[in-house]
């Protein structure tokens, strides 16, 4: 399951989905924004309050979770039995919140997650992998809090990358960014292979 950043259906998003599919995973990408994602040209926002109000229009319980449920139903119709979820930026918060249902998701992951708090650690009930950039706050307290509950948690820091490099704000024409994005995607593939394809 792929949950995008606030920019929604971008070329980078589809490339990540394609790479996960090429690794042998079924990938669902719910259009939670209904084609009305935040415009990339308006980032950074001239008015942060406007952005936060827009984000508030897409709550997990009322909007995102039902869309994920629909996507899960479609995957089940196609014979998929084990599920993981990966989110980017804002989608990282959504994937983290989704991980509370360990009967559905066996693994959750995120690149450059936004809005993830130490308090969210109490909700994580399946293995989690985070790939923060140099721009994210220190996620070590979150990781430690998840581990303290006996749940597998890890992070790989990309201190040479900016927020969004594996999603819409990534310039994959730049060889370094492309290489680091490819490395991040491979970490996701290995993580999901372990938890979804292993016994």
Automatic annotation (TrEMBL):
Domain Dienelactone hydrolase per the UniProt entry, residue ranges: 3-195
Ranges in coiled-coil conformation: none
Family annotation (InterPro entries): AB_hydrolase_fold (IPR029058), Dienelactn_hydro (IPR002925)
Domain of life: Eukaryota
Pfam family of the protein (one): DLH
Alphabetical keyword list: Hydrolase
GO MF, one annotated term: hydrolase activity
Name this protein carries in UniProt: Dienelactone hydrolase family protein
Protein source organism: Nannochloropsis gaditana
